[in-house]
């Protein structure tokens, strides 16, 4: 059994677990995905895009200021996440990490 994403207009509509033989009987475009990201960079989720030129699943952009890392196909904040063991959330208004207290 493997995980497959149904792609509609470049967007993941659903993800199912099935045998390749079953996928071969379905209509539409189905692309295999994996939890560990060993294929297609990231595990597909509903609403993700599938970029066939990168052969990668890409999550929706979380914030306007974030940019896509073209190697990992993951979104990155313009400021590195603090490495001090505290809990933070992204503040788009200040484009910085805000400590949660």
Description of the molecule:
With 101 residues, the protein is mostly beta strands. The chain has two domains: 1-60, no CATH class; 61-101, no CATH class. It is built from one helix and nine strands. It has one helix at residues 20-23, and strands at residues 2-8, 11-18, 29-33, 49-51, 56-58, 67-69, 74-76, 88-91, 96-99. A three-stranded antiparallel sheet has the order 2-1-3. The mean pLDDT is 97.
Counting DSSP E segments of at least 2 residues, the number of strands comes to 9
* Structural class label: mainly beta
Whole-number count of domains:
2
Pick out the low-confidence regions.
Answer: none
Query: If you compute it from the alpha carbons, what radius of gyration comes out, rounded to the nearest whole angstrom?
Result: 17 Å
Largest sheet: 3 strands, antiparallel
Mean pLDDT: 97
- Number of helical runs? 1
Strand content is 35-45%
């Amino acid at each position: 059994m493997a995980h497959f994403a149904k792609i509609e207009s470049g967007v993941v509509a659903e993800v199912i677990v099935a045998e390749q033989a079953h996928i071969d009987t379905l209509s539409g475009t189905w692309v295999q995905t994996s939890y560990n990201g060993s294929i297609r960079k990231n595990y597909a989720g509903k609403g993700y895009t599938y970029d066939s030129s990168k052969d990668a699943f890409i999550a929706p952009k979380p914030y306007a200021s974030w940019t896509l890392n073209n190697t990992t196909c993951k979104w990155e904040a313009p400021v590195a996440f603090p490495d001090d063991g505290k809990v933070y959330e992204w503040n788009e208004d200040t484009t910085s990490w805000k400590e949660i207290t």
